[in-house]
Amino acid sequence: MFGNVLCRLVTETAGVHRYVSRAPVIQRLTAAALPAPLRSFSDVKDEVQPPFDASLLEFLVCPLSKKPLRYEAKTNELINEELGIAYPIVGGIPNMIPQEARLIQKDTSTTPTQG
Amino acid sequence: MAASVRLLLRLSHRNINVAAAGGSARPGCCWGPTGPSSCRCFSDATGDRSTHFGFETVPETEKAKRVYKVFENVAQKYDVMNDAMSLGIHRVWKDMLLRAMHPQPGVRLLDVAGGTGDIAFRFLEYVQSQQERQKRRAARSTQTPSWQDISTNYSTEDEDGPQESKAVVCDINKEMLKVGKQKADSMGISAAGLSWVVGDAEELPFDDDQFDIYTIAFGIRNVTHIDQALQEALRVLKPGGRFMCLEFSKVTNPVLARLYDTYSFQMIPVLGEVIAGDWKSYQYLVESIRKFPDQEEFKGMIEDAGFYCVHYHNLTGGVVALHSGFKL
Hints:
The complex is a heterodimer. By secondary structure, chain A is α+β, with helices and mostly antiparallel strands. Chain A is built from 3 helices and 5 strands; from the N terminus they run H-H-H-E-E-E-E-E.
């Protein structure tokens, strides 16, 4: 990745751009260098799930009824009120397979996995 | 209201059927032909329809399970195997897909059967470089801006670009997505423009008219009901959206076909055994390629689903075909 950036620096045609682009590149380099060690600490430390990206809810719907879902932070699930089912979110990745969804109110046991 | 009750009951019926160890009792599809297209897959799952799993014939309900097993086994070594089997040419194929796609900043991509994220990563990189090219062009055209202006332009607009364009990777297999997510983290790709969802290509968990581009690379031959996957693709694309599919296809040249067959059946399962420790999965892989319809037939299927301006390009002499269609 650093190599790419340096190549880009070298092949810049306009002289002005070469000087200017170095500054934000350095910012980018240092910015990129920072999160990585932080990320590895958090991975090792505990099993806290990475946060769910709520912007997905804009277009994510229940695969069965195609209706919008509600994010339940407590159980980390996506709830379809109408059908009374909850889709689990594992490792920040929502699992939208109908067979993996949990029926709410009926019984709390999970439905059998992928048939 | 009635529809939701029906669905709930069908869900619980499905539970009972699965628990009864795949009894062939029809689920309650005596509800009659119902409106929502989502019930299609339930009424078909009677167990007496069969399909191909490689050269084997299996009941349709079995195929999805077995495909899932295959990819669960190969997930960790998937990328390594791709490089070994195709001698690295798969990267060229994927780059050509991106070149044909030519995405502009701000478009939304849905990569189905995206697994380890190859297409999504390439998409984000492509869009980012497009963004920079546009910025450079814009900066060049403005008359003698001060260095202050130029540097502020570069530093502020840089973070916007990748966030505008969004790539959603959807795959039925959790393991493949996990590998993909790890790859993204290690490559340092900004998580802002990239999302991962576990979903079924035949029943996409996305709303209508949401995506500008739908891609499925080397995944559609593993889908049990290809026509359903195509119809779902049509549904989630915006009007004017593009459907693009990379898939192994029929080799046109007879000499090359012979070589390709020999290589496929003699070398690939062996490579699979040596590198991934799994002969059977790769045997399935080469067999499933042979069972997949050829270029013209697949083109017909895409047109039947409702896409317009369907074209295909053969890559590497027909080993791979790139099909493209538009929702109009």
